[in-house]
Write a structure and sequence with these properties.
This protein has 259 residues and is an alpha/beta fold. The chain folds into 2 domains: 177 residues, Rossmann fold (3-Layer(aba) Sandwich); 69 residues, no CATH class. It has 10 helices and 10 strands. The strands form 2 sheets. It has a 6-stranded mixed sheet with strand order 6-7-8-3-9-10, with helices on both faces. It is globular and about 55 Å long. The two termini are 21 Å apart.
């Protein structure tokens, strides 16, 4: 029932990311070999593949940190490759990036970590509005009692949650998650997976979730895009992607997934 409810919130008339025939090479290494993908408003798409397969390169091209060799990348209706630096920075404010390392400032407490992106990017905010925003995102990730803790005082899972909260505080339209469960124990990974689904519903975000964790993919993804040898070989829900005789896909399932 929950999955059906999530699917009903997806607007397939409104694409937020459109990637067509995307190619990227580094010297003689071909990384992206004709990637095609559309992400719709309100949808979580999992990009699933082996480590080092090019998933992170794809994300960097989406946010304009790397230039494509050829193809088309449209994000929120804008051609990323044609934007000026000012326009690109404005677009990035509409995109939240959850780093694998959480990327918190060790010298700041949690409240200061959360306030920092607000005060850097939005001028003339009142103390009341800043306070409201901090409390809201801490409540969303279930860590409202950690406001004055330092990052070093938190567990790995808590740091991951605070990293997501700091991303949410600017109310992005798109969330990009880079290996959100990497290095976490199974129970904490389960909690992060639930949080990703809660963020999708509560903040009405569209997301790309990069992972090689099949449990994460199954729980968080409305669709799975299986990345093999530089392109998406299968795209669909979890069952559709893995209901195949393709040995590369079957091997990935057999190696990674634990019932």
């Amino acid at each position: 029932m929950e999955n059906q409810q999530n699917l009903s919130n997806i607007n397939r008339d409104t694409p937020v990311i459109v990637i067509k025939d995307l190619y990227k090479s580094f010297d003689d290494l071909d990384v992206l070999k004709g990637v095609n993908l559309t992400v719709y408003k309100g949808e979580n798409v999992v990009v699933l593949g082996k480590s080092g397969s090019g998933k992170s390169v794809l994300i960097k091209i989406i946010i304009g940190l790397l230039k494509k060799d050829s193809g088309e990348v449209m994000v929120l209706g804008q051609d990323v490759d044609k934007l000026s630096e000012k326009e690109l920075n404005a677009l990035r404010l509409r995109i939240g990036f959850s780093f694998q390392s959480s990327a918190l400032y060790d010298s700041m407490n949690i409240r200061q970590n959360l306030e920092f992106p607000l005060t850097m990017n939005i001028k003339n905010l009142s103390k009341e509005n800043i306070e409201k925003a901090v409390v809201e995102v801490l409540d969303a990730v279930g860590l409202e009692n950690k406001m004055y803790d330092m990052p070093a005082d938190l567990s790995g899972g808590q740091r991951k949650r605070i990293g997501i909260a700091r991303t949410l505080i600017l109310r992005p339209e798109i969330m990009l998650y880079d290996e959100p469960t990497a290095g976490l124990d199974p129970i904490t990974s389960f909690e992060i997976n639930k949080l990703i689904k809660r963020v999708q519903k509560q903040f009405n975000t569209s997301s790309i979730i990069i992972t090689h964790d099949l449990t994460c993919a199954k729980v968080t993804g409305d669709r799975i895009a299986m990345f093999v040898e530089g392109r998406f070989t299968r795209v669909g829900d979890f069952k559709e992607v893995f209901d195949t005789t393709d040995e590369q896909v079957k091997g990935f399932y057999d190696y990674n997934f634990i019932q």
